[in-house]
TrEMBL record:
Keywords: Membrane, Transmembrane, Transmembrane helix. The keyword Transmembrane helix applies. The chain crosses the membrane at residues 12-42, 54-71, 83-104, 180-202, 208-228, 249-267, 273-294, 315-333, 353-374, 386-416, 436-456. This is Citrate transporter-like domain-containing protein. It comes from Halobacillus litoralis.
């Protein structure tokens, strides 16, 4: 017992809570929901000391604001536990994501990124477009690993380029491509949260999110061509057999992605599960089946089990953020002060363009001062009824998701920006300045596509 480390076995407790949440989906019981909420409070208490400083501050702010709204409402103490249960499903999704990444590694699809980024490219503008297109294709499943792998490879390919130019190229191509991939990825928590808030159908949202991603790629590829066309690269020799192998592997990868999307759509439309739950419960069975077809089951489990345990044990930041956010959202809805948050939106009633620009500006400003886009998403979730009165659910989903995801390359305390700053030895705010124009323009594209949907819905 002396060697038993409590922090290394938190995944057992969390898994128990997640299982209770699954049971509640099939058996809606108020007592069970209160128990889940009580366990959520325990999770916050356990993880607050383990959370990063930024998330501790966010947690304190959210819980303090929620307490203020609670005092101003007529809600009883007995109802408080249920206020912490709302976002347990999001934590469950975050816990399951490593299984998908593990089957990608077991199938050696991460090496696909190397082969697609390699090759003869005399001009940096061609490499920029290729790098960004590759990120958009693969980051949906590879997630953060796609950014780290591509950055390492690009550092090697651009080793003879001036450091300032090289760093600009890498921060722009990888982070911008990463954000464009997340716009439509069913594994992206911001997209899943926006659908959770609005109740929209993912199948209806998907084509529009693809449109935002395509327009965003066309816009940024043009910018990349203009910025880097004057720089040349040394010609490199490549293995002629690699392109054919890469194409077959890419086709296999995209086929798997399409099948996964079909599974999610089936669970949502036929089984009538909400999108968040559909994605969560589909991940492990799909990844396990995929590993069997690839004849990589043993590697999948060998990679996946320790990765899943580590990821689940280290959910501290998200536990503090999401459960505190759930408390704030519920108390805000019960508080008379909700009216003060509604007033700016009411003032903009009848002006969908102004509402959309207000939402885009809110995401951008909050991100730049260090507030996670999920927290901002939760605030808008608190006034979702008012927003859905002004905008159709599909329109609102596209708007929230695209404006939130657009800020990822410009989030000074975001994980992908932090990893990039360490990799390139850059100040995070230098990376933010490089990508801020992209975040603004991509947010505008989200607004424009959202306006376009008003003609349909």
């Amino acid at each position: 017992m002396r060697n038993f480390r409590f922090a290394e076995h938190l995944y057992i407790f969390y898994s128990f809570v997640f299982i209770l949440n699954v049971i509640h989906v099939f058996w809606s019981n108020s007592i069970l929901y209160s128990v889940i909420g009580c366990l959520g409070i325990v999770m916050i208490v356990m993880n607050f000391p383990r959370a990063d400083r930024v998330f501790k501050i966010l947690g304190i702010v959210l819980l303090s604001a929620g307490s203020f709204f609670f005092i101003s409402s007529d809600v009883t103490i007995a109802e408080v536990p249920t206020f912490f249960a709302g976002n347990i499903g999001m934590l469950f999704l975050l816990s399951m994501l490593p299984w998908m990444n593990s089957v990608v590694k077991a199938g050696r699809y991460n090496k696909l990124l190397h082969s697609l980024l390699g090759g003869n490219k005399k001009g940096m503008e061609g490499l920029y477009i290729r790098s960004e297109a590759t990120m958009i294709s693969l980051a949906a499943f590879l997630n953060l690993s796609s950014a780290t792998i591509s950055q390492d490879l690009l550092k090697d390919q651009l080793k003879n380029v001036k450091t300032k130019v090289r760093n600009s190229f890498i921060t722009m191509a990888t982070l911008r491509g990463y954000s464009l991939a997340l716009l439509w990825s069913p594994l992206e928590i911001l997209l899943a949260t926006s659908i959770f808030i609005t109740g929209a159908n993912y199948l209806e949202v998907l084509p529009w999110m693809f449109l935002v991603a395509i327009l965003g790629f066309a816009m940024d590829a043009s910018i990349g061509r203009m910025l880097f066309r004057k720089y040349n690269l040394e010609e490199e020799k490549t293995d002629e057999t690699k392109p054919a192998q890469s194409k077959r592997r890419l086709v296999s990868f995209i086929t798997a992605l399409v099948l996964f999307l079909l599974v999610v759509v089936f669970l949502g439309n036929v089984m009538n599960f909400n999108f968040l739950f559909s994605v969560t419960i589909a991940i492990f069975p799909f990844a396990f089946t995929w590993s069997i077809l690839l004849k990589r089951r043993r590697s999948f489990l060998k990679i996946g089990w320790p990765t899943w345990k580590k990821q689940t044990n280290n959910l501290s930041n998200f536990i503090v953020l999401l459960l505190a956010l759930s408390f704030l959202t519920e108390t805000l809805n019960a508080s008379p002060y909700l009216k003060f948050l509604q007033d700016p939106l009411v003032a903009l009633e009848g002006n969908p363009i102004l509402i959309m620009l207000f939402i885009q500006a809110a995401f951008l400003v909050m991100t730049l001062i260090g507030v996670h886009p999920l927290a901002t998403m939760g605030i808008f979730g608190g006034v979702s009824e008012l927003l859905m009165g002004a905008l159709p659910s599909v329109t609102l989903t596209i708007l929230l998701a695209s404006c939130a995801i657009a800020t990822i390359p410009s989030a000074p305390y975001g994980l992908v920006v932090t990893l990039t700053s360490v990799s390139l030895r850059m100040n995070p705010y230098q990376i933010v300045l490089k990508n801020l124009p992209h975040s603004i323009l991509l947010g505008f594209l989200g607004v424009l596509v959202s306006l376009l949907t008003l003609l349909v819905y």
